[in-house]
Specification:
The protein is about 65% helix and about 5% strand. By secondary structure, the protein is mainly alpha-helical. α1 (about 5-20) runs antiparallel to α2, α1 runs parallel beside α4 and α5 (about 75-95) packs across α6. InterPro entries: Osmoadaptation_assoc.
C-alpha cells in the first residue's frame, strides 16, 4: 500500500499508542488512547462517505486496525461488544458502492461473522440491520458458498433475540411461539440444505467429507447451572490436517461456535 491515507495514518498511531499503554510503558494514559482512537474513527467515517476512496486498500486496512484497537482498548468483558458495535457503526456510515471489490466483500464477510457470533452470544439482534449487511457483503456466488451461508445465518440473531425475550417473559401466546418455532425450523432446514450441498460437491470431486457433526460427550464446566449445553454437538474432521486448517478459517467460525449450540439441538 503506497497511497496516502490520513485515516490509515491516524489508525496506526492509535493502535501503536494503545499497544504502548498495554506494555506498561509510561507516557500514554487511557484518556489519551481514547482520544486518539476517537480521532482516528472520525477520519475513517469521513473517508467512508466517499466511495472513491472508501474502497481503497488503505481504507480497508484502517478499518481492520481501528476495529482491532477496540479489543485492546476496552475491558475484556465489553471489548467484543465494543468491537461489534464499532464495526457496525463504521459500516453504517459507509456509502455502499454499486459494485464492491472482492477484497471489500471478503473483509465484510469476516466482520459479519464476528458480529453474528457476538449477537448470538449476547442474545441480541445485530447492531447493523441484516439488509445493510447484505449490501456490504454481496450475494453468495454459489448456493454452497460461504456468502450463501452468511445469507442464511444473518437473520438468526434477531429471531433468537425475540424468541429469548418471549421465553423469558410471562406472556402466553401459542401463535407467537409457533411462529418462532417455524422460523427457526426453516433456518435449520436451510442450513442442512447448505451443508448437504457442500458435502455433495465434495463427493462429486471424489473426496471424503471434510467434517461432520456428532453429539458432544464433553463435560464443560461452563454448562453447569444451565439446562442446555453450550456445544451440544461436536465436529469430527476427516484428518488432523483438515482440522488444523479449518480451525484457522474465519468462515467456519459460525459452524465451530454458536450454530451448534441451538441449530443442532433437536
Amino acid at each position: 500500500m503506497e497511497g496516502p491515507s490520513e485515516a490509515l495514518d491516524h489508525s496506526l498511531v492509535a493502535f501503536v499508542a494503545i499497544q504502548i499503554r498495554l506494555s506498561g510503558e509510561v507516557g500514554v494514559s487511557y484518556d489519551e488512547a481514547i482520544e486518539l482512537y476517537n480521532h482516528a474513527l472520525s477520519k475513517v467515517i469521513h473517508v467512508l462517505d466517499c466511495p472513491c476512496i472508501g474502497n481503497s486498500d488503505e481504507s480497508l486496512a484502517a478499518i481492520v486496525i481501528l476495529s482491532t484497537c477496540e479489543l485492546f482498548l476496552f475491558h475484556a468483558s465489553t471489548s467484543w461488544n465494543a468491537h461489534a458495535q464499532g464495526v457496525s457503526e463504521i459500516l453504517r456510515h459507509r456509502a455502499v458502492p454499486e459494485s464492491g471489490t472482492s477484497s471489500w466483500n471478503d473483509l465484510c464477510r469476516r466482520l459479519c461473522v464476528i458480529c453474528v457470533i457476538q449477537a448470538l452470544s449476547q442474545k441480541k439482534p445485530l447492531n447493523l440491520e441484516p439488509n445493510l449487511w447484505r449490501k456490504h457483503i454481496g450475494p453468495g456466488v454459489t448456493p454452497d458458498s460461504f456468502g450463501a451461508l452468511l445469507d442464511i445465518t444473518i437473520d438468526i440473531p434477531s429471531v433468537m433475540a425475540e424468541a429469548y425475550a418471549f421465553a423469558s417473559s410471562d406472556e402466553v401466546d401459542g401463535e407467537k411461539l409457533s411462529r418462532y418455532v417455524d422460523l427457526l425450523s426453516d433456518k435449520f432446514n436451510l442450513l442442512e440444505n447448505w451443508r448437504g450441498l457442500v458435502h455433495c460437491n465434495i463427493a462429486a470431486r471424489n473426496q471424503a467429507p471434510l467434517f461432520w457433526s456428532v453429539p458432544s460427550r464433553a463435560s464443560n464446566p461452563a454448562d453447569d447451572g444451565y439446562p442446555d449445553k453450550l456445544f451440544p454437538f461436536a465436529l469430527v474432521f476427516s484428518d488432523n490436517s483438515v482440522a488444523s486448517r479449518k480451525s484457522r478459517e474465519p468462515q467456519y467460525l459460525p459452524i465451530h461456535l454458536h450454530i451448534p449450540r441451538w441449530i443442532y439441538t433437536k
